[in-house]
Design a protein that fits this description.
Shape: globular
Largest sheet: 8 strands, parallel, barrel
Number of strands: 14
Strand content: 15-25%
Structural class: alpha/beta
Distance between the termini: 48 Å
Oligomer: single chain
Number of helices: 17
């Protein structure tokens, strides 16, 4: 990479699809990962860690597909994680083959506590493994990254030694992880400074940082690391990830954007330089945040910095008065800089297919002819129900089409009756794989529960509903509701997603989408699906 050793800007390494996906409940299927990877490329991410190729066939396929479709010549570097084990590295190299620019990211623990209890190896053994495995990765590709896991709790002198050997073996990026989210900003800054001063060949590699938010300090730690020589930041959208999550990409990027005059001298730039410190197109931040939130089902807390619903809201009279007179009184950044527009009306019910197609392209959606036709019909239907159609509504329709599941069962009708003096009852009609229409009804604890029980009576595949989330796309009573659900079957998780102005219909469609994915997986595994609803559905409801 020509910018690999250019030290006056910050490389943004996104690990939403690898570490972010390790967040409890955030499992993504291949299509969902692909949709996120495409958006990350539009956002301007430098390196996408697409997964852990050796972890499972699904992970391998996701890395390979992202390498094929997003890893273009002018696109981001596509990276796969691999333990410092030959089979892991080989699988990563294989999955990354289709990418124009690829990177293997290999790691091994270096802290004494990990060596003793996890690896059961001596320092000398780990040193030899690190050197050998970086060299092995280098035999597949030039771009290799090495991470000493739990670096923050490693003995500094030993850490310097491991890093020196890894660089000598060919690592172009050295990543320093705060694996357990334990460090504080001044300690982390000192660690990075120590590495810069004590690893003789450090000028041959980029120093990267990876950190968890267990003490709420991940972003602060990273910014201190930048001041001390770190030039790559490993982060995730919305800060999702294991336990309390990772450093949040949007917070880091906007901190470097809003405070660039403060950070400029640390990157050898004139104080008043207006040059951006990262390659990120900040106007894509909000859209990316929404997409990741919808697909993972991980809702963003309202008071979350940058992308929370309240991030640009002013409740107090004094603040409101100030903002009306001059935005800068109480706002340090413009909402439009992260892509939050005033939801302008872009299209109405008289808009034609061409205007719709053009707008979709402008919003960054690449729809096939079939997807476009379906999306256009959905748009026309929505225009009859909703006077004002915003970019967010259009994005919800487009995402719905892109993420469509195999159509095994098709939802033909959903009808619900409920109220505070009534028992919630639902009737559904589904078209079966044989083309037959089956109708059934059920009573539930609420309208959605009743719908799901009725669908289960028709489909008859045992599953457990483990997650159900609804998000409103825009403000207002006529807003589209986006529903994300997850089902578990035999320890496999299947997700479904749908958007509609009627959240009961969206809930039904999302459930059918997830069941279709489950049925498709069962067919692939050569498990015969019941052709008739012979048994009552053995469904547990969460």
């Amino acid at each position: 990479m020509e910018n690999q050793l250019k030290q006056d800007r910050i490389i943004i390494f996104d690990t939403t699809l690898r570490d972010g996906e390790q967040c409890p409940g955030a499992t993504l299927n291949v299509d969902e990962k692909l949709a996120i990877a495409r958006q990350l490329a539009r956002l301007g991410i430098d390196v996408i860690e697409a997964g852990f190729a050796f972890a499972s066939p699904g992970d391998f396929e996701a890395v390979k597909k992202i390498a094929q479709t997003v890893g273009t010549e002018d696109g981001p570097v596509i990276c796969s994680l691999a333990r410092a084990i030959k089979d892991d590295i080989k699988a990563a190299a294989e999955a990354l083959k289709p990418a124009a620019k690829a990177r293997i990211h290999t790691f091994i623990s270096t802290s004494d506590i990990h060596l003793e209890y996890q690896l059961k190896k001596s320092r000398a053994e780990v040193l030899a493994i690190a050197e050998e495995m970086v060299a092995y990765a280098k035999s597949f590709m030039d771009d290799v990254e090495f991470s000493p896991m739990d670096a923050v709790r490693s003995e500094p002198e030993y850490l310097y030694q491991v890093l020196e050997r890894a660089i000598a073996a060919g690592a172009k990026t050295i990543n320093i992880p705060d694996t357990v989210g334990y460090t504080t900003p001044s300690e982390f800054g000192a660690l990075i400074r120590g590495i810069k001063e004590n690893v003789p060949n450090i000028d041959q590699a980029i120093i990267s940082v990876h950190g968890h938010n267990d003490l709420g300090l991940a972003v602060a730690n990273f910014l201190e690391a930048v001041k001390n020589g770190a030039r790559q930041l490993e982060c995730t959208i919305n800060g999702i990830g294991e336990r309390a999550g990772n450093a949040a990409l949007e917070e880091l990027v906007m901190a470097l954007h809003v405070r660039r005059q403060y950070f400029n001298p640390y990157l050898g730039r004139p104080v008043d330089s207006e040059e951006p410190l990262t390659n990120i197109d900040t106007r894509q931040i909000y859209k990316t945040s929404r997409l990741v939130s919808n697909l993972t089902g991980m809702l963003v807390q309202p008071n979350k910095a940058i992308v929370g619903a309240n991030a640009f809201a002013h409740e107090s009279g004094i603040h409101q008065d100030g903002v009306l007179k001059n935005k800068l009184t109480y706002e340090i950044m413009d909402a439009q800089s992260i892509g939050l527009t005033d939801n302008q009306i872009v299209l109405g019910k008289h808009s034609g297919r061409n205007a719709f197609r053009t707008r979709m392209k402008e919003l960054g959606f690449e729809l096939s002819e079939t997807e476009l036709n379906k999306a256009f019909l959905r748009f026309k239907d929505l225009a009859d129900k909703k006077k004002e159609i915003s970019d967010w509504d259009l994005a919800a329709i487009a995402n719905d089409e892109i993420q469509s599941s195999p159509e095994i069962f098709r939802l033909e009708l959903v009808q619900v009756s409920c109220g505070d003096r009534a028992r919630p009852t639902a009737t559904v009609t589904l078209r079966t794989p044989a083309g037959e229409e089956l109708t059934d009804a059920a009573i539930g604890t609420g309208p959605v529960d009743a719908v799901y029980k009725a669908i289960n009576r028709v489909v008859n595949v045992p599953n457990q509903l483990i997650e159900f989330s609804v998000q409103s796309v825009t403000a207002g009573i006529d807003a589209i509701g986006e529903v994300t659900i997850r089902l578990r079957h035999d320890n496999q998780i299947f997700s479904g997603h749908a958007a509609n102005t009627d959240i009961i219909v969206a809930s039904a469609q999302a459930y059918v989408n997830a069941l279709n994915r489950l049925c498709a997986a069962l067919q692939t595994q050569r498990t015969s699906l019941p052709k008739e609803p012979v048994i009552q559905a053995a469904t547990e409801q969460a």
